[in-house]
Amino acid sequence: MESVVPSDRGNYTCVVQNKFGRIRQTYTLDVLERSPHRPILQAGLPANQTAVLGSDVEFHCKVYSDVQPHIQWLKHVEVNGSKVGSDGTPYVTVLKVGTALGWREQGWLGIPGWGALLGAALPRR
């Protein structure tokens, strides 16, 4: 079934038979209705970190979204001694850009009923 709607809720039965007999299995379909909303970040992530010089650091961002999110990692930088432009927009460098595809992105697994649970790790240098 593609693009289910609320009226598709209900029981569905598969009946299989041959000359030796007949079997049937009934399944229930429930259709969840959702309101579009902005992505939700898992509380506490990513967390601030302090690292020893030369060590590896990873930040993880877990996102709950009913639609496919676009994920970016940005590093705030200074340009000519300033952190923001004349219009107040912060200066940033894009470190990683991606669109989470399917149920897996960087090792976090999707949970049906919560939309896609996605993780995007800051890339290693």
Automatic annotation (TrEMBL):
<keyword id="KW-0067">ATP-binding</keyword>
<dbReference type="GO" id="GO:0017134">
    <property type="term" value="F:fibroblast growth factor binding"/>
</dbReference>
<keyword id="KW-0597">Phosphoprotein</keyword>
<dbReference type="GO" id="GO:0005886">
    <property type="term" value="C:plasma membrane"/>
</dbReference>
<keyword id="KW-0325">Glycoprotein</keyword>
<dbReference type="GO" id="GO:0005524">
    <property type="term" value="F:ATP binding"/>
</dbReference>
<dbReference type="GO" id="GO:0005007">
    <property type="term" value="F:fibroblast growth factor receptor activity"/>
</dbReference>
<keyword id="KW-0547">Nucleotide-binding</keyword>
<keyword id="KW-0675">Receptor</keyword>
<keyword id="KW-0808">Transferase</keyword>
<keyword id="KW-0829">Tyrosine-protein kinase</keyword>
<keyword id="KW-0418">Kinase</keyword>
<protein>
    <recommendedName>
        <fullName>receptor protein-tyrosine kinase</fullName>
        <ecNumber>2.7.10.1</ecNumber>
    </recommendedName>
</protein>
<keyword id="KW-0393">Immunoglobulin domain</keyword>
<dbReference type="InterPro" id="IPR052615">
    <property type="entry name" value="FGFRL"/>
</dbReference>
<keyword id="KW-0732">Signal</keyword>
<keyword id="KW-0472">Membrane</keyword>
<dbReference type="InterPro" id="IPR013783">
    <property type="entry name" value="Ig-like_fold"/>
</dbReference>
<keyword id="KW-1133">Transmembrane helix</keyword>
<keyword id="KW-0677">Repeat</keyword>
<keyword id="KW-0812">Transmembrane</keyword>
<dbReference type="InterPro" id="IPR036179">
    <property type="entry name" value="Ig-like_dom_sf"/>
</dbReference>
<keyword id="KW-1015">Disulfide bond</keyword>
